[in-house]
Amino acid sequence: MLEPAASSTAAERTVTVVGNGTASAAPDTALLHLGVETRGATPAEALDGCGRALDEVLAALRRNGVEPAHLVTSGLNVHPDWEPEQAGRRPAGFRATAGLTAHLSEPARAGEVAAAAVTAGGEAARVHGLMLVVGDQAGVLAQAREGAWRDARARAEQYAALAGAALGQVLRIDERVATPQAITTSGYHAQAAAAPAGPRVELGEAAVLAAVTVTWTLTDPPTVS
Prior knowledge:
Layout: E1 14-25, E2 29-40, H1 43-63, E3 71-81, E4 93-104, H2 110-121, E5 125-133, H3 138-162, E6 166-176, E7 183-184, E8 206-219
Antiparallel strand pairs: 1-8, 2-4, 2-5, 3-4, 5-7, 6-8
Helix pairs in contact: 1-2
């Protein structure tokens, strides 16, 4: 936030607008959301099966060049597995699930890596979704900010003209939180029947958004002689 020093008075006229800017870049990172789901007669049996399946998936990811530092596990759960209309409401077994996110530096290989993961994990493997993002977005974000500034100034100039005034100095600049950039595929559920080569991933472009709120003073328009 930037607030240039200014002497404000009660009679000071101002205009405040929000400007939006967008810039695009090819995604350089893929976030592949995977998981495993297993069942067992006891919680321990279900959890043990989940651990073994997760180990197989992790090993397959490492064999496909995913560094350990780019693998994050999450959402480890064990729940009773109820049968419909079961008398006595005792669980027929237990279900264990775990989530895993792989950060891929070669996003075009996401389908290939997903296929390897579900092949290794067998019927326990799941694919929950794919997100393509711009990991290093400093340059493209700067472009988006420039677009947001131009948009804000054009809006402010229009409002000033409609009010019979002109823009003066900038009093306040607030950068607004914009929607995170991403291209997200539809979530899907995959098992070991996936083709070995995996589905083809089209990268397209990811949009990086910027938004800014700016306040200008309003001055009298220049006189025309």
